[in-house]
Amino acid sequence: LSPTGLFLYPLGDARFEELVEVYAEQAAALEEAGVDLFVIETMLSVAECRAALLAVKSVSEKPVFVTVTCDEKGRTLTGSDAAAVLQILQGMGVDAFGLNCSTGPEEMLPTFRRLREIARVPLIAKPNAGMPESTDAGAVYSCAPEDFTARLEDFAAAGVMIFGGCCGTTEEHVRAVAEKAGTLTMCHPAPQKNDLLPCATEKELFFLDPATPVGGALPCDESLEERLEEAMAEDMPFVTVEIREEAELDNFADAQLLLTKPLCIRCDDAMLLEQALRLYQGRALYDGKLENDALEPLSKRYGVIC
Question: Among 81, 90, 243, 249, which residue has the least CB neighbours within 10 Å?
Answer without folding.
Answer: 249
